[in-house]
C-alpha cells in the first residue's frame, strides 16, 4: 500500500453557517491522505503510477472557493473529486480545520474529518 498526503494546506475562505462568516471569511487548514494498492513498481519513475499531490492541492483549492455553510460539505466535495479523478484509491481522508471559530471564547480550531473506504458498502458506514 502507498500513502500520499498533504498536511497543512492553508486557504482563506468564506465557509460558515452564519451570514457574517460568509462575509468576513477566515483561515482554514486542510489535510488530505489517500491510500492505494501499489500495483506498479516505482523504479520507472512515472507520476502516472501514483497520486499527484499537486492535483490534490488543486482539488482542495477549487472546493475551498465554493462558499458553503458546512465545512463537512466542503470536505465531502474534496473527497468526491479525489475519488472521481483517482478511482483506484482505496482509502481517503480529508480533515478541515477552521481557525479561531467565533464561539464566544478562545478556540484554536474547529475540526471536521470525512473518510472514504472503497471496501465498505454504504450499509456498513
Strand arrangement within the widest β-sheet reads 1-2-3-4
Q: Provide the number of structural domains.
A: 1
Strand content: 25-35%
Distance between the termini: 22 Å
Poorly predicted runs are none
Topology order in helix (H) and strand (E) letters: EHEHHEE
CATH class: Alpha Beta
Shape: elongated
Q: Look at the structure and give the mean pLDDT.
A: 91
Structural class by helix and strand composition: alpha+beta
Query: Might you state the CATH topology name?
Result: GTP Cyclohydrolase I, domain 2
Helix content: 25-40%
Number of helical runs?
Answer: 3
Please give the largest β-sheet. 4 strands, antiparallel
Overview of this structure, please?
This protein is of the alpha+beta class and 125 residues long. The chain has a single domain (2-124), classed as GTP Cyclohydrolase I, domain 2 (2-Layer Sandwich), CATH 3.30.1130.10. It has three helices and four strands, in the order E-H-E-H-H-E-E. It has helices at 19-24, 53-64, 71-85; strands at 2-13, 26-36, 89-99, 109-117. The chain has a four-stranded antiparallel β-sheet with strand order 1-2-3-4. The model has no long low-confidence stretch (mean pLDDT 91).
Amino acid at each position: 500500500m502507498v500513502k500520499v498526503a498533504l498536511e497543512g494546506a492553508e486557504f482563506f475562505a468564506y465557509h460558515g453557517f452564519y451570514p457574517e462568516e460568509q462575509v468576513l471569511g477566515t483561515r482554514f487548514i486542510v489535510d488530505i491522505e489517500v491510500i492505494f494498492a501499489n500495483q506498479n513498481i516505482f523504479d520507472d519513475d512515472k507520476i502516472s503510477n501514483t497520486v499527484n499531490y499537486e492535483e490534490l492541492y488543486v482539488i482542495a483549492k477549487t472546493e475551498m472557493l465554493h462558499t458553503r455553510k458546512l465545512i463537512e460539505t466542503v470536505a465531502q466535495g474534496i473527497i468526491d473529486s479525489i475519488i472521481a479523478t483517482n478511482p483506484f484509491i482505496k482509502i481517503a481522508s480529508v480533515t478541515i480545520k477552521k481557525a479561531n471559530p467565533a464561539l464566544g471564547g478562545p478556540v484554536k480550531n474547529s475540526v471536521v474529518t470525512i473518510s472514504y473506504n472503497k471496501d465498505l458498502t454504504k450499509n456498513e458506514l
